[in-house]
Fold:
Amino acid sequence: MQSIHNRPLWAIAKDIRAHWAKPNFGAVPYIDALSQLDNVNDKFGFDDARGLILYFLSNAKTWRGDDAKRIKTELKAMAGIK
Structure:
């Protein structure tokens, strides 16, 4: 079985959509971009995945609950932040 920290970004984006019924409008473009990527080394246009993760996290501050905490922790680990 694949480790949670090795999940592709598109799978994490799918997980976000499944657990965040009404995402903050500012987070939606980053969810969309992450859904097109596999890993933290990928690029979406001129943006790197790490930057997109950070932008998503800054726009997802209102998302609460166990799923939000789990997914945000996973993304932070992928981006190399604590």
The mean pLDDT is 93.
